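Running log. JK asked me to keep both predictions on one page so they can be read side by side. First protein, sequence followed by its tokens:
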Amino acid sequence: MTAAPPVGARRPSRRTRTTALVAVAVLPLLLALTGPLIAPHTVDTPVTAPFAAAAGDAWLGGDQLGRDVLTRVLHGGTLLILGALLVAVVTTVAAMLIGCLAVLRPTLGRTVERSADVAILLPPLLGIMLIALAWPGGGRWAVITAAIVLGTPYAVRVVAAAASPLATAGYVEAALGRGESTAHIALREILPNLRATLLTLFGLRFVEGVYVISMAGFLQIGPQPPASDWSLMVRENASGILLNPWAVIAPSLAIALLAITVNLVTLSLAPDTTAKAVTRP
């Protein structure tokens, strides 16, 4: 018989791990959203020589015009976060509503499946370029619209696949026997059992929104110079990466950290649906 581990050696609970992870993840989010308030310099004012190395007044050096890299990094995340958040919210809500209804209406389900097949085959970059060409003055809104249009069919298919087994559950059949409406069954019987799927999907859609908006910014589809944007900073300063690497590394790390932390938080907040292992004493 194996002795039980001492109380102090037990692993931290799921709630403790989740709280710690959320606290860690909130810090870069708050820093990105409040960055303009704590930036040391004016965003468009040159303070060093072009591509100057890190120095006293410019902790991350200067960019291609001598502007403070740290200041532009602190200014460059707000619109990206808000845009990715809008993409994630709209896509997840649309997937939630349409996906739950699709499993109860076969015609709608087939339409969703065909639309998802087409959306998956269309490269995101091509979709962004098509919408940008059709909406020349759209800027960042055109990119956000492209991310929503391209991401919604796939997200709906994911929700429909997760809801499909629930459509034949006993409580759903009982609701059908009582004569409940399709909307009632979808929103009151099926949707509450999809919390883990929806939280995970929200995190993935947020990361996808960051990826799409950043890729468009790198290609100068959306934000234009002299706007302070992380992806635009990578493009503008790529030619001087050997002179001041931080002008490229700092915004790149900011994008990666934002995507990773948000995804980890949504995964940790999702209900644990795995069966607990039975241990013998």
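And the second, directly underneath as requested:
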Amino acid sequence: MPDTLAEAFEARRERLLAVAHRLLGSHADAEDAVQEAWLRLSRQDAAAIGNLDGWLTTVVGRISLDVLRSRKSRPESPYDEILVAIDDGTEDVARADSVGLALLVVLESLGPAERLAFVLHDLFAVPFEELGRILGKSSGATKMLASRARRKVRAADRTPAAGGSSQREVVQAFLRAAHDGDFEGLLRVLDPDVQLTVDTPGGVVVVLGATKVAAGAQFGAASGGRTVLVGGLPGVVAWRGDGSPLSVMAFVVADGRVARIAAVADPARLASMDLPKPE
């Protein structure tokens, strides 16, 4: 066992940072939450804490929940941490990782209590009884929160992607059809069950089904679009006529069709991202 309380805390720091980052979506906010947990621990009688792991996880969870609830609009997720790189066609298209744009947008659609219940139970195995104490709810109510959040996350799970060149071709076909207003062409390239998730100034909007996505695909006609890789997925950055960014989109391709589109169209979010310049 570590000799001091500080050593005991440091031995658990990485796990606590992982918990806080999943809850808050920001490395900086996670660092702040974990530091606050240390300050609270330093004021406690350590001998009275029977389960230090559980105590610290609970404290970080409560701090993170307070942060999520106190934010005036939606969680301020780290869009600056999503790598957007120019796609010159020479690099293999990678699979999106677990903190890619699509999952980031989906997690933001969860309420604070849903997010905490899902992250702490499903990812870090915190018992529902303890989650109930954090949230001020019964175990049954907490289970329902986690189940509802789980359904939302599973609905947005990535579909296995095709090879890099095939992905690019499908995405280019989608963009051409959107630019030309070719509704039938859009239907040919979209999976019937395609899901479009858009982060807008008013909140997260989800559109399901090829017909609805095709009908609203006018965003593809924006001027100054540039092919990019968004967290390893094929994507596009579009600009307005004045040179300000209009949207960033990432595409998941499966079986030769677009199966998922994750987009950011909130100017504040776009301003936080390191985007390439218009060509």
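Observation for JK regarding the second prediction: Residues 94-99, 158-163, 219-223 have pLDDT under 50 and may be disordered.
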